[in-house]
Amino acid sequence: MKKFSVVFALVLSVSLLTGCNKSNDSSSSDGEKTLTVWYWGEQEAPGYKAYMEEMVKRYEEKNKDVKVEAVLQESDNLYSAFRTAEAAGEGPDIQYMWGGTQAMEDVWKGNVAPLSDYISEEELSVIPKASLAETNWNGKQWGIPAYGFTYGIAYDKTAMEKAGVDPENPFTTWDEFMDCCKKLKDAGITPLGMGLKDGYLPAWIGIFLGQQNLDSVNDMINLMSGEEDFTDQKYSEWLDKIVELKDAGYINDDILSLDLYQGQQLIESGKAAMTLHTQAYAVSLEKSMGADKIGFAKAPVYGTGKLAASVATPSQVYVIPKSAVHKEEAADFLLFLQEEDNIKCLYEMANVMMPNLNFKEEWVTSEIDKNVLQWQKEDTNFCYQLYFAPMFESDGLIPTVQKMFSEDLPAAKAAKELGDALDKCIEQNPEVHEAFLDWSVEE
Amino acid sequence: MKKRKVKNISPYVYILPTFIILLLVIVVPIIYVIVQSFYTTIADENVFVGLRNYKLAVKDELLWIAIKNNLKLFLCVPILTVISLAIASVLYNKIRGWRFYRSVIFIPYILAIPVVGIVFSYLLQYNGVFNSILRAAGLENMALDWLGDPKLAFPSVAVVIIWKQIGFGVVLFLARMMSIDRSLYESADVDGATWFQKFMHITIPQTKTIIEFYVIITLIEMLSWVFNFIYVMTAGGPGNKTLVLEYLIYKKSFGGGDFNIAMAISVILLILASILIAVHQVVMRKED
Amino acid sequence: MKRKRGRGITSQVLMISLVIVIIFPLYFMTVNSFKTHEEYVNNMIGIPKAFTMQNYIDAFQGKPFGQWFLNSLILTAAAAFFTGIVALLAGYAFAKMKFRGRELLFGMIVPLMSVPPVAMIIPQFRIIKIMGLVNTRISVILIYVGIMLPMTIYLMRNFMKTVPDSLLDAAKIDGCNSKKALLFVMVPLSVPALITSSLVNIVWVWNELLISLVFLQKESLRTLMVGITLFKGRFTLNIPVIMAGLVIATVPIVIIYIFAQKYLVEGMLAGSVKE
Fold first, then answer.
1. Mean of the per-residue pLDDT values for chain B?
2. Which residues form the ABC transmembrane type-1 domain (chain B) (predicted)?
3. For residue C26, is it within any domain?
């Protein structure tokens, strides 16, 4: 028996050892460097994976001694894989992150290396200041845009026509929007299609409606730091608007059993006339269904703040993790992505625009994108979600908005719950919270 | 003398691989979790904070919602056990087609949870298949939002779990029943025992060990292995109505915020699980 | 006699309704995978009028189902196999050998089976890094074995306890040492426990999502479960294509089940000790 156990132990240890060798092999073998990239994006910008593969190919051709290994992440493990690996000092060389606080949180936790240590200010100057500011903190640049996109309302032009609404200019103010919804409903069409089950939607609604009473980013900071009260009409009026839409029956009846994407797809299957969308996806619909079928509009304005007519064009970002082995090469690859040919390739393959001064308007053929470029020039760029306090979304916004639909929670009570959730988030993350304040006031 | 010595060491050799693996994979991680639950990380540095994480965790109503839901899930265990036993004893009588029934009933158990979750999402959606059947049958008021209604979401998830897990119990119990000595039943028949008496006095005692195993494994499933169902079907919603401890730990660990609080919640879950096991051990010992 | 037949009919009615409840979701999945999306919208539960294979072509597009399936199979088989062997050894020691600290050690193992895997991912990753096993199948297999061991040992030990000592003593009189007693007496007798626990283990590993997602950061190592979650996201609004993807993921395991069923059932029965 002893022999048996010994043999077994041997087999086990040998197999462990061989595993050892394997992993050593892949990380460094005679001078060739392997650059690991963990990315996301295919889910919101179809074609992004193909674009990334093309970039890897081009980069490897240019740099014979570097091999790039790009691994597409699932939505749910984009952060879990990174934070686990980083906790063990075994992260990738380049990590994709969602913009704003969702990227800065890891900076504050010490998981990210300052990008500006590896990329000069001059090299960064091709990127618009506003985009850089989203991940600038403590005098350093931490992230570089992966791509930007604009939020808007995608709508079915045929349905609008059927309901007697001008399909080229359906609404600009809240009253016009409600009127449009009413006409659609009277014509037997569900005005808005949305899905709340997986919880991504509440932040989207916030981007469309929540930021309209704000005057500047400082209002948002005051709110998120607990200095202002959520129950103040200025901050909670958008919750009334949700209730207004719900009570009028302008939202699909199965909102609670659909995911975000399933809700958005209701306009493709003709079950709803409008949905909250990104320009990237709307353009892909425009391409597949035709420009005479799909339109894209700005959020209807009800607010009185300076940001009432603002448009959200956030960017997703790449960062270099603190534990990255090849930081110089990572920076080089990230700059490579900003080259003119490559941002053109990004636009052609994934329908998303790089916030980069070298982006040429003449590349744009889509009607929707032409409009969006116009908005970007005329309107302030502000995105509500970028300034959420850590955990505010998961512990406050998502369950509260779900309850507004599932339990008919009144707007006033919802505002109170959001305020309480915010207090809890501040209490649970005091250090991160201070860093958060630091960051936002700078602008 | 020499032989005796070998005999004394050999049991330890038998359990050595187990201990090495458990040490690496479970014990050391648990110690790490316990230690970390007293710390917090500030800018990459570990700072001792005493019971702060526990205080914050206990103060958070989400913890209590999750514990309550896990306890509610425990209700599935007696339901599963009774139904599986009943089905197994029907099949045990070798009714016509029993082999076919056994095969079919077992199928859900081997299906992947994401597959089950996705299919049931389409069936149970407000405008899904189940409701369209009800509406077609003129039962408009029975067509409810199975996964979206705060009162129904949790029972719906529980029903799907039962649907998936029932086959395992049936096959397990049936296999055990088949090995019961037939003569026990025959002598009971001679005494004129009813079906129910035979079930209570022969079937149950004879299958006791396996029932116990099934109850334990199902309890553990409901406490620690239920993540995938929640993850695929409801993501904890609507409004945290289907939040369970595992999902809460996942959200706190990776969803942003201070993951040391997640460690504190993990320790609380560990304590709960240990209490469960301890109660079980005491009950078992009493019966012996 | 008449009464018995009456009960037979109720049993049949019960069983048939149960079968319908169980089959319906599978029927729904399969039947819709052959419809066009337009037909699905109007006819969710009927048989397809125009039978199409296009959904399967679309579902396969750009997705290495074969690779995913193979990866899942390797992890599942290896983890279940090693768990079985290690647990057999430990179960035997705990059930049939006398040594100091036996009850204490066993008592320490049992509670470990309720530790939720999600709580340990971060420290486990650190250990795997120290061992130099990051991004290898072995790392994941090792973790799976560790998570499944306590439950398997528990079942094994309780089962082996029911084997009468007389059988082992007889073997010893015939000149078997403890190794041979284990191999030739205990192992054959333990087949039902082994099969039962392996079944639980296989199903658990097959379904495991979180650990494989975090630990296997290479496209070539991704498992089937990770692949299926693709169908949960934005992949397509075309429900028949989603259903086709789910069918592709399900068919191999059902085929294996059909072939293994006989052994499974016989195995659970084989050698059970008549008391």
1. 87
2. 67-280
3. yes
Is B179 in the A-facing interface, judged by CB distances under 8 Å?
A: no
Kindly report which listed range (A255-269, B185-199, C220-234) carries the lowest average pLDDT score: C220-234
Does residue A119 sit in the same domain as residue A227? Answer: no
Give bridge partners of residue C100 from the DSSP assignment.
none
**pTM, whole model, 2 decimals?**
0.88
Within a domain: A16: no
* CB A302 within 8 Å of CB A132: no
C-alpha torsion sign, points B17, B22, B28, B31? negative
Any idea what DSSP says for residue A226? T
Q: Which chains touch C (3 or more CB pairs under 8 A)?
A: A, B
Helix (H) or strand (E) holding A72: strand A66-72
**What is the distance between the terminal CA atoms of chain A, rounded to a whole angstrom?**
72
Instruction: Give the number of domains in chain C.
Output: 2
- B216 shares contact with chain C (CB less than 8 Å): yes
- ipTM of predicted complex: 0.86
Residue C139 sits in the same domain as residue C45: no
Closest alpha carbon to A439 in A112, A172, A199, A90: A112
Question: How far is the C-alpha of C92 from the C-alpha of C211, rounded, in Å?
Answer: 30
Q: Is B160 helix (H, G, I), strand (E, B) or coil?
A: helix
Asked if residue A322 and residue A299 are part of one domain, the reply reads no
Q: Cβ neighbours of residue A235 under 8 Å, at least 6 residues apart? A: A210, A213, A223, A228, A229, A415
Nearest CA in chain A to C209: A77
Residues in contact with C268: Cβ distance below 8 Å, sequence separation at least 6, in sequence order: B171, B172, B175, B176, C192, C195, C196
Task: Give the alpha-carbon dihedral of A383, A384, A387, A389, to 10 degrees.
Answer: -150
Residue C269 lies in a domain: no
Taking alpha carbons only, the member of C202, C109, C99 closest to residue C157 is C109
Query: Residue C13 has which token pair?
Result: 């009615």
Mean pLDDT of B203-217: 85
A345 and A423 in a single domain? The answer is no
| Domain coverage including residue C209 | 64-223
Number of folded domains in chain A? 2
A269/A411 same-domain check: yes
Token representation of residue B52: 């702060």
- What pLDDT is stored for residue A7 in this prediction? 53
Does residue A1 sit within a domain? no
Q: Measure the N-to-C terminal CA separation of chain C; round to a whole number of Å.
A: 31
What domain range includes position A419? 151-310+389-429
| CB–CB contact A431 B254 (8 Å) | no
pLDDT surpassing 60 at residue A28: no
Contact map slice: B 259-288 vs A, CB within 8 A: 259, 261
* Mean per-residue pLDDT, A51-57: 96
Looking at beta carbons, which residues of chain C come within 8 Å of A88?
Answer: 122, 125-126, 128-129, 134
Query: How far from B136 is each of A188, B21, C6, CA to CA, in Å?
Result: 21, 56, 33
DSSP conformational letter for A45: S
Nearest to B206 by CA among B227, B222, B230, B182: B182
Peptide bond into B238 cis (omega under 30): yes
Residue of B108, B123, B266 lying closest to C22 (CB–CB): B108
CATH 1.10.3720.10, domain B75-224, yes or no: yes
What does the pLDDT average to over C203-207? 89
Cβ distance A228 to A159 under 8 Å?
no
* Residue B180 pLDDT class (50, 70, 90 cuts): confident
pLDDT for residue A31: 65
**Domain layout of chain B by residue ranges:** 75-224
Between A154 and B213, name the one with better pLDDT. Answer: A154
Q: Which residues of A274-309 are buried (b: 16+ CB within 10 A; e: fewer)?
A: bbbbbbbbbbbbbeeeeeebbbbbbbbbbbebebbb
For residues C1 and C69, membership in a common domain is answered with no
Helix (H) or strand (E) holding A12: helix A2-27
